Amino acid sequence: MTASNATAAHNVDYDAVIIGAGFAGLYQLYKLRDRLGLNVHLFEKGSGVGGTWFWNKYPGAMSDTESPFYRYSFDDDFLADWDWQRKYIDQPDILAYLEETVRRFDLGRNIKLNTEVTGMVWSDDGHWSVRTADGRTVTSTYVVTALGLLSATNWPAIPGLGDFKGRLVHTAEYPDDLDIAGKRVGIIGTGSTGCQFIVASAPVVEKLTVFQRSPQYSVPSGNGPVEEGEVDGYKARWGEILPQIRESAVAFGFKESTVPTMSVSAEERERVFQQAWDRGNGFYYMFGTFCDLATDSEANEAAAAFIRKKIKETVKDPATAERLTPLTPYAKRPLCNHEYYEVYNRSNVELVSIREDDTPIERVTARGVLTSDGREHALDVLVLATGFDAVDGNYRKLDLWGRQHINKHWDPAPTSYMGIMTAGFPNMFMVVGPNGPFVNIVAGIEVQVEFITRLVQAAEVRGKIVEATKEAEDAWTETCKTIAEMTLFAKEQSWIFGANIPGKRHSVLFYLGGLKNYRDCLETSVRNGMQGFAFPNETTVGSKVEAAVSESKDGEAEHIEVAPAQVT
């Protein structure tokens, strides 16, 4: 594209189209519309805003990030006005919070609900054509995909699933009218969602049958009502808390440990693990106790052994306790729940191990689930907590064409530059795209949205086209691989490497270097004139562009002055 094509980008329906009305999409709408003054439109396939928290309405659904840190930080008045009642915020309150965000900032006038985007095509004239399921096509200079990290539902290929005559539901599409009280309920899957459902449903159902493939390490959440004055205390200290979050690794609101596990005595390790167990939170147990649980096998085994001991102490039936006990490293996304293991002491809860060496599922029948021991587990409701095709799943469902189709570009594995752009797809920005930071999702979203806003602002004065270079994308991919291989996470089969999807290539999907280091990478790019990004339509070809960026309190660029250096 030549400089003479620059005006073509003005003949579009919108300056920017955003896809998705969760935490990411709503914040990006606010930034592009209210901070940059662009004409922005957001498409959301659901009948309401909320993204993940609109769809995931299953019993027990809640964030595993503590309430003070699972919210936006960009508006002081909003921070001061919004209260919470418990240590963790549950799905109805998260949804109410996002609905209040829309109301407070008048975002609804730029949102079209019940509209699914099915395809996008890039034109070298400098715009995207965005197609929706109702047959409409709109054009836009920029597109921001806020499709969600965990939103492409994974329906398992279990024989006979369609034969079941009871109620079959996936937790990601949990219906409002389903009442499980007094019913015989089966659940397949014991990841984060499954564990939450198990804890919440066990007290109300007639019988709960848990079909478990892989036992999980879970620590207490420490959930409960906030103490008097606690909320006001967080509000008063937010000016101190926010910098700490952004300068930390996992951004969960605590200071990560710098103490190696084996540098202290066995008695001290026991004391530290017990303190973390009593306090609650999975990320705190993994990163707040010692500094090397995710990287050192001996340290990891010490943490895992402590949890195994707790399982044995908690679960009364020895056979059940054994089936619940993981023997693999403690190297998946850390779980926390309120009295998860205690649930299995209830007389109405049965654990069925469906590992290949135990009693795997043969098929689903009209009446329930048939396992390999010949037993048919009769059910009224079968719940699938089988997770998502995480990170790239929703992109692959789109008919998405940049300079090639997204599935071809991402063969054999998804790639990006800093989780924000992928080479060959100009003016398409991703929030929590492949190889973005593995951190508290809201904190990560804010950092990415603020950087995307900088990129758009830079593009507006540098020819209206920006794209990640292949060299930058390749280097970032190698960086993510190198860091992942330094951790024990890479040795485990989990969704954070795509292992939960049959046939999906094991690949690195996250930057595991922490939020502080990730922000440093973004700032290095800014200081070097948006290094790693090309502006092919820039009018001063061959110039060295110096961006003078004045910072606002949230770290986003208030103004970028482009001063081309002397071309020699």
Automatic annotation (TrEMBL):
Provenance organism: Cutaneotrichosporon cavernicola
Keyword Glycoprotein: no
Name by which UniProt lists this protein: Cyclohexanone monooxygenase
Protein origin, superkingdom: Eukaryota
InterPro entries listed in its UniProt record: FAD-binding_Monooxygenases, FAD/NAD-bd_sf, Flavin_mOase-like
UniProt-listed Pfam families: FMO-like
Keyword Cell membrane: no
GO molecular function, one term: flavin adenine dinucleotide binding
Keywords: FAD, Flavoprotein, NADP, Oxidoreductase
